[in-house]
């Protein structure tokens, strides 16, 4: 089994690690775009072009599924990616976990990038899946970029700012950017009281494996890294996060 994941940067680590935990035998191709990131400020057409370029680079490695491990790319490029690669290749997108977060009808805060916060896309998801919950949008300017750099001081400042703007009494926080799942422990610690955090990585992994079907093989899966189409290795910043360390751990003997 070989699975490709596409994102602008390190956000794809969360989904890749979730797949690795469920299927340690799966070969992973992670295709990110350090030359073109961040994707968020780009136009929808430009985001689509960059996502397609990363996906096409991964296709040379003949994956059996493609994961769009990025909220922004899913919003703007998923339809185009599916038009190009399906039905021959399953394409799985990323959707913020608003539905499970709102299921209990509590107070839900959606942490997301400044561009996504208030967008028609996110407002549509809230209208569709928010149910009886009280849902608030919390913009997190600079947080994804700080996570990408593994800049501890910048991460702490951005998390503290978002936590201060998270309404009192919040019961559930949706991690609306895949980068945020890499620091879920720091987000939980910054909030004034315990809350349930909801990421997308586990759901992405489960959906991808459902699309591919059952079956395992002996041994450990390989990791192939592409940077803007070039063969590379995971950047050093990835090792600052447990997910990156998992993906680069030596094969079991």
Automatic annotation (TrEMBL):
Keyword Isomerase assigned: yes
**Is Isomerase there in the keyword field?**
yes
User: PROSITE patterns per the record?
Assistant: ASP_GLU_RACEMASE_1 (PS00923)
Q: What is an example of a Pfam family matching this protein?
A: Asp_Glu_race
Write down the superkingdom of origin.
Bacteria
What is an example of a GO molecular function annotated in this UniProt entry? glutamate racemase activity
The alphabetized UniProt keywords are: Isomerase
GO terms for biological process, alphabetical: peptidoglycan biosynthetic process
The record ties this protein, via PANTHER family, to: GLUTAMATE RACEMASE
Q: What is this protein called?
A: Glutamate racemase
Biological source species: Kitasatospora cineracea
Identify the taxonomic lineage of the organism of origin.
Bacteria, Bacillati, Actinomycetota, Actinomycetes, Kitasatosporales
